[in-house]
Amino acid sequence: MLRHILLFVCFLLTSNILLSQTGTVTTIISGESSYIRDALSVDKEGNIYSSIYGNNLHKISPPPELEVTLLSSNFANNVCSEVDSKGNVYVSDFSRNLIRVITPEGEDRIFASNITTSAGIAFDKDDNLFVASFGTNTIYKISNEGSSKQVVTSGGGISNPVDLDFDENGILYSSNFNNGRIFKITLDDSFNAASVEFLAQVPQGANPNWAIGYSAYNRGYIYATGIGTDRIYRVSTDTGELEVFAGNGQRTTVDGDLQNCSFVRPNGIAFTQSGDTCYVSEGGTTANNLRMIVFSEDVTDVGSVDELPTKIKLNQNYPNPFNPSTVISYQLSDASDVKLKIYDILGKEIKTLVNGRKYPGKYEVTFDASNLSNGVYIYELIAGEYSFRKKMTLIK
Questions:
Q1: Which of 32, 54, 159, 305 is 20 to 30 A removed from 287 (C-alpha atoms)?
Q2: pTM of the model
Q3: Domains along the chain?
Protein backbone atom coordinates (compact mmCIF):
# COMPACT_ATOMS: atom_id res chain seq x y z
CA MET A 1 0.00 0.00 0.00
CA LEU A 2 2.86 2.37 0.82
CA ARG A 3 4.25 1.87 -2.67
CA HIS A 4 1.02 3.01 -4.29
CA ILE A 5 0.60 6.00 -2.00
CA LEU A 6 4.11 7.13 -2.89
CA LEU A 7 3.39 6.73 -6.57
CA PHE A 8 0.41 9.06 -6.23
CA VAL A 9 2.56 11.60 -4.38
CA CYS A 10 5.00 11.33 -7.28
CA PHE A 11 2.17 12.29 -9.62
CA LEU A 12 1.34 15.39 -7.64
CA LEU A 13 4.96 16.50 -7.48
CA THR A 14 5.66 15.97 -11.17
CA SER A 15 5.06 19.10 -13.19
CA ASN A 16 5.62 17.43 -16.56
CA ILE A 17 3.90 14.05 -16.82
CA LEU A 18 4.78 12.25 -20.04
CA LEU A 19 1.84 10.91 -22.02
CA SER A 20 2.86 7.41 -23.13
CA GLN A 21 0.29 6.94 -25.87
CA THR A 22 -0.55 8.38 -29.25
CA GLY A 23 -4.07 8.76 -30.53
CA THR A 24 -6.76 11.05 -31.83
CA VAL A 25 -9.81 12.53 -30.11
CA THR A 26 -12.83 13.33 -32.27
CA THR A 27 -16.24 14.73 -31.35
CA ILE A 28 -18.82 12.48 -33.01
CA ILE A 29 -22.04 13.85 -31.39
CA SER A 30 -22.38 17.47 -30.22
CA GLY A 31 -24.68 19.21 -27.76
CA GLU A 32 -27.23 16.45 -27.20
CA SER A 33 -28.32 16.89 -23.59
CA SER A 34 -31.32 14.61 -24.16
CA TYR A 35 -29.13 11.51 -24.45
CA ILE A 36 -25.44 12.38 -23.81
CA ARG A 37 -24.43 13.24 -20.26
CA ASP A 38 -23.54 10.37 -17.94
CA ALA A 39 -22.31 6.76 -18.01
CA LEU A 40 -21.52 4.79 -21.17
CA SER A 41 -21.24 1.11 -22.03
CA VAL A 42 -20.52 -0.77 -25.26
CA ASP A 43 -21.76 -4.20 -26.35
CA LYS A 44 -19.85 -6.75 -28.44
CA GLU A 45 -21.39 -5.39 -31.66
CA GLY A 46 -20.06 -1.91 -30.87
CA ASN A 47 -23.41 -0.34 -29.92
CA ILE A 48 -23.12 2.41 -27.31
CA TYR A 49 -25.53 2.72 -24.37
CA SER A 50 -25.82 6.21 -22.91
CA SER A 51 -27.32 7.21 -19.56
CA ILE A 52 -28.26 10.78 -18.68
CA TYR A 53 -28.96 10.55 -14.93
CA GLY A 54 -32.64 10.91 -15.73
CA ASN A 55 -35.51 8.88 -17.13
CA ASN A 56 -34.10 7.62 -20.40
CA LEU A 57 -31.53 5.14 -21.68
CA HIS A 58 -30.50 5.41 -25.34
CA LYS A 59 -28.76 3.02 -27.69
CA ILE A 60 -26.42 4.51 -30.31
CA SER A 61 -25.21 2.45 -33.26
CA PRO A 62 -21.46 2.44 -33.99
CA PRO A 63 -19.87 5.18 -36.11
CA PRO A 64 -20.35 6.34 -38.77
CA GLU A 65 -24.13 5.72 -38.62
CA LEU A 66 -24.66 6.81 -34.97
CA GLU A 67 -28.36 6.03 -35.15
CA VAL A 68 -30.01 6.89 -31.81
CA THR A 69 -32.80 4.72 -30.35
CA LEU A 70 -34.68 5.28 -27.08
CA LEU A 71 -34.29 1.95 -25.30
CA SER A 72 -36.17 2.67 -22.08
CA SER A 73 -37.73 5.58 -20.18
CA ASN A 74 -38.58 3.65 -17.00
CA PHE A 75 -36.04 5.27 -14.70
CA ALA A 76 -35.96 7.95 -12.04
CA ASN A 77 -32.21 8.57 -12.34
CA ASN A 78 -30.36 5.97 -14.38
CA VAL A 79 -26.64 5.84 -13.75
CA CYS A 80 -24.60 2.89 -15.03
CA SER A 81 -25.35 0.27 -17.64
CA GLU A 82 -23.55 -2.93 -18.60
CA VAL A 83 -24.27 -5.62 -21.17
CA ASP A 84 -23.86 -9.33 -20.38
CA SER A 85 -22.66 -11.97 -22.85
CA LYS A 86 -26.25 -12.67 -23.99
CA GLY A 87 -26.97 -9.06 -24.89
CA ASN A 88 -29.09 -8.22 -21.85
CA VAL A 89 -28.62 -4.61 -20.72
CA TYR A 90 -28.57 -4.06 -16.96
CA VAL A 91 -29.06 -0.51 -15.68
CA SER A 92 -28.80 0.93 -12.18
CA ASP A 93 -31.55 3.31 -11.08
CA PHE A 94 -29.84 5.45 -8.47
CA SER A 95 -32.93 7.08 -6.96
CA ARG A 96 -35.14 3.98 -6.90
CA ASN A 97 -32.44 1.73 -5.42
CA LEU A 98 -32.79 -0.97 -8.05
CA ILE A 99 -31.42 -2.63 -11.18
CA ARG A 100 -33.49 -2.96 -14.36
CA VAL A 101 -32.80 -5.38 -17.20
CA ILE A 102 -33.70 -4.89 -20.86
CA THR A 103 -33.54 -8.07 -22.93
CA PRO A 104 -32.71 -8.28 -26.65
CA GLU A 105 -36.40 -9.11 -27.17
CA GLY A 106 -37.39 -5.78 -25.63
CA GLU A 107 -38.60 -6.96 -22.22
CA ASP A 108 -37.97 -4.18 -19.67
CA ARG A 109 -38.32 -5.19 -16.02
CA ILE A 110 -36.94 -4.80 -12.51
CA PHE A 111 -34.18 -7.35 -11.91
CA ALA A 112 -33.05 -6.52 -8.34
CA SER A 113 -34.21 -4.08 -5.67
CA ASN A 114 -33.27 -2.72 -2.23
CA ILE A 115 -29.78 -1.66 -3.35
CA THR A 116 -29.39 1.76 -1.78
CA THR A 117 -28.33 4.34 -4.40
CA SER A 118 -27.29 1.67 -6.88
CA ALA A 119 -24.42 2.88 -9.06
CA GLY A 120 -21.57 0.98 -10.72
CA ILE A 121 -22.28 -2.34 -12.42
CA ALA A 122 -19.84 -5.01 -13.59
CA PHE A 123 -19.96 -8.59 -14.84
CA ASP A 124 -17.22 -11.14 -14.30
CA LYS A 125 -16.31 -13.62 -17.05
CA ASP A 126 -19.10 -15.96 -15.90
CA ASP A 127 -21.76 -13.23 -16.09
CA ASN A 128 -22.02 -12.87 -12.32
CA LEU A 129 -23.41 -9.40 -11.59
CA PHE A 130 -21.79 -7.02 -9.08
CA VAL A 131 -23.28 -3.67 -8.04
CA ALA A 132 -21.90 -0.76 -6.01
CA SER A 133 -24.10 0.99 -3.44
CA PHE A 134 -23.01 4.62 -3.61
CA GLY A 135 -24.60 5.68 -0.33
CA THR A 136 -23.64 2.71 1.86
CA ASN A 137 -20.09 2.23 0.49
CA THR A 138 -20.86 -1.42 -0.19
CA ILE A 139 -20.29 -3.74 -3.12
CA TYR A 140 -22.80 -6.54 -3.66
CA LYS A 141 -22.93 -9.68 -5.75
CA ILE A 142 -26.46 -10.20 -7.04
CA SER A 143 -27.85 -13.72 -7.39
CA ASN A 144 -28.55 -15.03 -10.88
CA GLU A 145 -32.30 -14.56 -10.49
CA GLY A 146 -31.88 -11.14 -8.84
CA SER A 147 -33.75 -12.09 -5.69
CA SER A 148 -30.89 -11.83 -3.23
CA LYS A 149 -27.65 -9.98 -2.72
CA GLN A 150 -24.39 -10.85 -0.99
CA VAL A 151 -22.03 -8.32 0.58
CA VAL A 152 -18.65 -8.59 -1.12
CA THR A 153 -17.00 -5.79 0.85
CA SER A 154 -18.02 -2.62 2.67
CA GLY A 155 -16.10 0.44 3.82
CA GLY A 156 -12.37 0.02 4.26
CA GLY A 157 -11.62 3.07 2.14
CA ILE A 158 -14.39 2.46 -0.38
CA SER A 159 -16.45 5.64 -0.24
CA ASN A 160 -19.13 6.71 -2.72
CA PRO A 161 -18.15 3.98 -5.21
CA VAL A 162 -19.37 5.16 -8.61
CA ASP A 163 -18.08 2.41 -10.90
CA LEU A 164 -16.86 -1.20 -10.95
CA ASP A 165 -14.63 -2.99 -13.46
CA PHE A 166 -13.28 -6.53 -13.86
CA ASP A 167 -10.03 -7.49 -15.56
CA GLU A 168 -9.43 -10.73 -17.46
CA ASN A 169 -8.06 -12.39 -14.30
CA GLY A 170 -11.23 -11.85 -12.28
CA ILE A 171 -9.83 -8.97 -10.22
CA LEU A 172 -12.46 -6.36 -9.33
CA TYR A 173 -11.73 -2.62 -9.27
CA SER A 174 -13.82 0.00 -7.49
CA SER A 175 -13.58 3.76 -8.13
CA ASN A 176 -14.59 6.44 -5.60
CA PHE A 177 -16.46 9.43 -6.99
CA ASN A 178 -15.48 12.16 -4.52
CA ASN A 179 -11.90 11.44 -3.43
CA GLY A 180 -10.76 9.59 -6.57
CA ARG A 181 -9.35 6.55 -4.80
CA ILE A 182 -9.28 3.30 -6.80
CA PHE A 183 -9.20 -0.08 -5.06
CA LYS A 184 -8.11 -3.51 -6.30
CA ILE A 185 -10.27 -6.30 -4.88
CA THR A 186 -9.33 -9.97 -5.01
CA LEU A 187 -12.28 -12.33 -4.57
CA ASP A 188 -12.29 -15.80 -3.06
CA ASP A 189 -14.28 -18.74 -4.45
CA SER A 190 -17.36 -17.62 -2.50
CA PHE A 191 -17.21 -14.09 -3.97
CA ASN A 192 -16.09 -12.51 -0.72
CA ALA A 193 -13.26 -9.97 -0.76
CA ALA A 194 -10.07 -11.85 0.11
CA SER A 195 -8.14 -8.57 -0.08
CA VAL A 196 -8.88 -4.91 -0.74
CA GLU A 197 -5.80 -2.98 -1.84
CA PHE A 198 -5.48 0.73 -2.50
CA LEU A 199 -4.23 1.13 -6.08
CA ALA A 200 -4.08 4.84 -6.93
CA GLN A 201 -5.84 8.18 -6.51
CA VAL A 202 -7.12 10.47 -9.24
CA PRO A 203 -6.86 14.19 -8.30
CA GLN A 204 -9.93 16.13 -7.27
CA GLY A 205 -10.90 19.22 -9.18
CA ALA A 206 -11.45 22.68 -7.77
CA ASN A 207 -14.76 23.38 -9.48
CA PRO A 208 -16.44 21.00 -9.01
CA ASN A 209 -14.37 19.28 -6.32
CA TRP A 210 -15.19 15.84 -7.69
CA ALA A 211 -12.58 13.35 -8.84
CA ILE A 212 -13.81 10.39 -10.92
CA GLY A 213 -16.82 10.42 -13.20
CA TYR A 214 -16.60 6.78 -14.27
CA SER A 215 -13.93 4.20 -15.06
CA ALA A 216 -13.21 1.37 -17.50
CA TYR A 217 -10.68 -1.45 -17.70
CA ASN A 218 -8.60 -2.06 -20.82
CA ARG A 219 -5.40 -4.06 -21.39
CA GLY A 220 -3.85 -3.83 -17.95
CA TYR A 221 -5.06 -0.34 -17.06
CA ILE A 222 -7.97 1.35 -15.36
CA TYR A 223 -9.01 4.46 -17.29
CA ALA A 224 -10.83 7.07 -15.20
CA THR A 225 -12.46 10.32 -16.26
CA GLY A 226 -11.33 13.31 -14.22
CA ILE A 227 -14.68 15.05 -14.08
CA GLY A 228 -13.27 17.82 -11.89
CA THR A 229 -9.91 18.26 -13.67
CA ASP A 230 -11.10 17.87 -17.29
CA ARG A 231 -8.62 15.11 -17.99
CA ILE A 232 -8.65 11.36 -18.48
CA TYR A 233 -6.23 9.31 -16.39
CA ARG A 234 -5.00 5.77 -16.58
CA VAL A 235 -3.62 3.56 -13.82
CA SER A 236 -1.49 0.45 -14.19
CA THR A 237 -3.29 -2.40 -12.43
CA ASP A 238 0.12 -3.95 -11.79
CA THR A 239 2.11 -1.09 -10.25
CA GLY A 240 -0.51 1.58 -9.50
CA GLU A 241 1.41 4.07 -11.64
CA LEU A 242 -0.91 6.97 -12.50
CA GLU A 243 -0.56 9.11 -15.63
CA VAL A 244 -2.56 11.49 -17.78
CA PHE A 245 -4.02 9.62 -20.74
CA ALA A 246 -5.72 12.51 -22.54
CA GLY A 247 -6.56 16.18 -22.08
CA ASN A 248 -4.64 19.35 -21.30
CA GLY A 249 -6.89 20.37 -18.41
CA GLN A 250 -8.52 23.32 -20.17
CA ARG A 251 -12.32 23.23 -19.81
CA THR A 252 -13.27 23.39 -23.47
CA THR A 253 -14.06 20.91 -26.24
CA VAL A 254 -11.12 20.69 -28.64
CA ASP A 255 -10.34 17.68 -30.82
CA GLY A 256 -6.84 16.55 -31.70
CA ASP A 257 -4.07 14.37 -30.33
CA LEU A 258 -4.11 13.11 -26.74
CA GLN A 259 -1.71 15.77 -25.48
CA ASN A 260 -3.43 18.81 -26.98
CA CYS A 261 -7.11 17.89 -26.89
CA SER A 262 -9.39 19.18 -24.15
CA PHE A 263 -12.59 18.13 -22.40
CA VAL A 264 -15.50 19.69 -20.54
CA ARG A 265 -16.19 17.56 -17.47
CA PRO A 266 -15.49 14.15 -19.03
CA ASN A 267 -17.84 11.68 -17.40
CA GLY A 268 -18.77 8.32 -18.94
CA ILE A 269 -16.10 6.11 -20.53
CA ALA A 270 -16.31 2.75 -22.30
CA PHE A 271 -14.09 0.69 -24.61
CA THR A 272 -14.93 -1.38 -27.65
CA GLN A 273 -14.07 -5.09 -27.47
CA SER A 274 -11.00 -4.55 -29.65
CA GLY A 275 -9.64 -2.20 -26.99
CA ASP A 276 -8.26 0.36 -29.43
CA THR A 277 -11.26 2.72 -29.33
CA CYS A 278 -13.05 4.28 -26.40
CA TYR A 279 -15.94 6.70 -26.04
CA VAL A 280 -16.20 9.52 -23.53
CA SER A 281 -19.27 11.57 -22.64
CA GLU A 282 -18.97 15.19 -21.57
CA GLY A 283 -21.42 16.06 -18.82
CA GLY A 284 -21.09 19.81 -18.46
CA THR A 285 -24.11 22.06 -18.84
CA THR A 286 -22.62 23.53 -22.01
CA ALA A 287 -21.18 20.32 -23.46
CA ASN A 288 -23.16 17.04 -23.66
CA ASN A 289 -20.88 15.74 -26.38
CA LEU A 290 -19.81 12.22 -27.28
CA ARG A 291 -16.08 11.98 -27.98
CA MET A 292 -14.30 9.07 -29.67
CA ILE A 293 -10.67 8.23 -28.94
CA VAL A 294 -8.73 5.96 -31.27
CA PHE A 295 -5.26 5.26 -29.94
CA SER A 296 -2.23 3.01 -29.97
CA GLU A 297 -1.42 1.93 -26.46
CA ASP A 298 1.99 2.43 -24.87
CA VAL A 299 3.63 4.29 -27.76
CA THR A 300 5.45 7.31 -26.43
CA ASP A 301 5.14 10.46 -28.51
CA VAL A 302 8.59 12.04 -28.74
CA GLY A 303 8.10 14.12 -31.87
CA SER A 304 9.27 13.16 -35.34
CA VAL A 305 10.72 9.77 -36.27
CA ASP A 306 14.16 11.37 -36.57
CA GLU A 307 14.05 12.11 -32.84
CA LEU A 308 13.55 8.51 -31.73
CA PRO A 309 16.45 7.27 -29.56
CA THR A 310 19.06 5.10 -31.25
CA LYS A 311 20.20 3.33 -28.05
CA ILE A 312 19.02 2.32 -24.60
CA LYS A 313 20.14 4.76 -21.95
CA LEU A 314 19.57 5.27 -18.22
CA ASN A 315 20.29 8.85 -17.18
CA GLN A 316 21.56 10.14 -13.87
CA ASN A 317 18.67 11.20 -11.67
CA TYR A 318 18.06 14.91 -11.22
CA PRO A 319 18.46 16.52 -8.79
CA ASN A 320 21.11 14.48 -7.04
CA PRO A 321 21.49 14.62 -4.07
CA PHE A 322 17.73 15.05 -3.59
CA ASN A 323 15.10 15.68 -0.91
CA PRO A 324 12.54 14.22 -1.01
CA SER A 325 11.89 13.56 -4.72
CA THR A 326 13.94 13.16 -7.86
CA VAL A 327 13.33 12.44 -11.55
CA ILE A 328 14.70 9.30 -13.20
CA SER A 329 14.72 9.38 -16.99
CA TYR A 330 15.53 6.72 -19.54
CA GLN A 331 15.20 6.09 -23.25
CA LEU A 332 14.51 3.03 -25.39
CA SER A 333 15.50 2.35 -28.99
CA ASP A 334 13.32 -0.77 -29.32
CA ALA A 335 10.12 -2.11 -27.81
CA SER A 336 11.00 -3.92 -24.60
CA ASP A 337 9.60 -5.35 -21.40
CA VAL A 338 10.84 -2.77 -18.91
CA LYS A 339 11.35 -2.74 -15.17
CA LEU A 340 12.63 0.21 -13.16
CA LYS A 341 13.46 -0.73 -9.58
CA ILE A 342 14.84 0.97 -6.48
CA TYR A 343 17.19 -0.79 -4.02
CA ASP A 344 18.90 0.25 -0.81
CA ILE A 345 22.69 0.11 -0.59
CA LEU A 346 22.52 -3.49 0.72
CA GLY A 347 20.61 -4.62 -2.35
CA LYS A 348 17.17 -4.91 -0.74
CA GLU A 349 14.42 -4.03 -3.19
CA ILE A 350 12.49 -0.93 -2.07
CA LYS A 351 9.94 -0.55 -4.85
CA THR A 352 9.16 -1.08 -8.52
CA LEU A 353 8.39 2.15 -10.38
CA VAL A 354 7.81 0.67 -13.85
CA ASN A 355 6.83 -2.85 -14.87
CA GLY A 356 5.41 -3.31 -18.33
CA ARG A 357 5.80 -3.17 -22.09
CA LYS A 358 7.28 0.09 -23.37
CA TYR A 359 7.98 1.31 -26.89
CA PRO A 360 10.79 3.40 -28.44
CA GLY A 361 10.84 6.81 -26.80
CA LYS A 362 11.91 8.88 -23.82
CA TYR A 363 10.40 8.38 -20.37
CA GLU A 364 10.46 10.12 -17.00
CA VAL A 365 9.43 8.77 -13.61
CA THR A 366 9.40 10.72 -10.35
CA PHE A 367 10.66 8.86 -7.27
CA ASP A 368 9.48 10.17 -3.92
CA ALA A 369 11.48 9.10 -0.86
CA SER A 370 9.56 10.98 1.81
CA ASN A 371 9.29 7.88 3.99
CA LEU A 372 12.86 6.67 3.50
CA SER A 373 15.99 7.39 5.50
CA ASN A 374 19.06 9.33 4.40
CA GLY A 375 21.55 7.35 2.38
CA VAL A 376 22.64 6.01 -0.96
CA TYR A 377 20.11 4.15 -3.09
CA ILE A 378 20.47 2.26 -6.35
CA TYR A 379 18.08 2.40 -9.27
CA GLU A 380 18.10 -0.27 -11.96
CA LEU A 381 16.64 -0.27 -15.48
CA ILE A 382 16.00 -3.68 -17.02
CA ALA A 383 15.00 -3.54 -20.70
CA GLY A 384 14.83 -6.94 -22.34
CA GLU A 385 18.25 -8.57 -21.94
CA TYR A 386 19.96 -5.30 -20.95
CA SER A 387 20.31 -3.85 -17.46
CA PHE A 388 21.75 -0.59 -16.15
CA ARG A 389 22.35 0.65 -12.60
CA LYS A 390 23.13 4.03 -11.10
CA LYS A 391 23.42 5.48 -7.59
CA MET A 392 21.57 8.40 -6.05
CA THR A 393 21.80 10.07 -2.66
CA LEU A 394 18.96 11.10 -0.37
CA ILE A 395 19.85 13.89 2.07
CA LYS A 396 17.12 15.28 4.35
A1: 159
A2: 0.72
A3: 19-296 (2.120.10.30), 305-394 (2.60.40.3080)
